What we know:
By secondary structure, the protein is α+β, with helices and mostly antiparallel strands. Helices cover 19% and strands 25% of the residues. The chain is built from three helices and ten strands, in the order H-E-E-E-E-H-E-E-E-E-E-E-H. The termini are far apart.
Amino acid sequence: MRIFxxxxxxxxxxxxxxxxxxxxxxxxxxxxxxxxxKIAVATLPEEAFWKGSLDGNVKGSVxxxxxxGGQGIDYSVSxxxxxxxxxxxxxxxxxxxxxxxxxxxxxLAHLDQTVRGEDxxxxxxxxxxxQQGDLSGKYGHINSTTSFSTTFHDDYTSLVEGDGxxxxxxxxxxxxxxxxxxxxxxxxxxxxxxxxxxxxxxGSIIKSSPTPTSSTTGIPVTGAATALNIAKNLAIAPVxxxxxxxx
Length: 247
């Protein structure tokens, strides 16, 4: 019986570890409705946050735009003047913006809408189970001491304001392999064209400034308002007729 209890406890511990490979709120949802034409860019500053031995700051940027049909985000990443040691290097979207004093510590933790945490490390074959902001974990660490560039598509971050995965008001942080923060920069929206495609049975139409909702009723608000006005008019019609008859 004692051996059985030990095995049971061990099994529970193992299942707990496996449970941690996704967020406490489940996998990251696929984002849709990302505005076509909206672009966000984070460009590292001239001066590094880390005050160790560097030959100038890491240079580079991350550019993001809506994916095909508004699903997910297409990223273009480019870095140069990388440190000669301390790699492989990693980079993430952090939840808070860089303050005016440039303190990268103030950017707090990674964008993590599903409450996953950093451990265990991201499984790049299952990006939906990773922190949304862990870009290098999902799409590749930087194994170079000179320059690095890549492009990739991520289904789990968003350029729709109000979405929990939105990063247009967040920051990019560049790290050594040991997670020390070397440099950081805020994302800036440089093209705020917010038209978004909505598919229909006969093609597509464009609606401006879409507001994300959790569900739809199928009844337009404007239509409901018109029906209410008609009802009011019908209700007062007998009163008006009676008044006219008395004249």
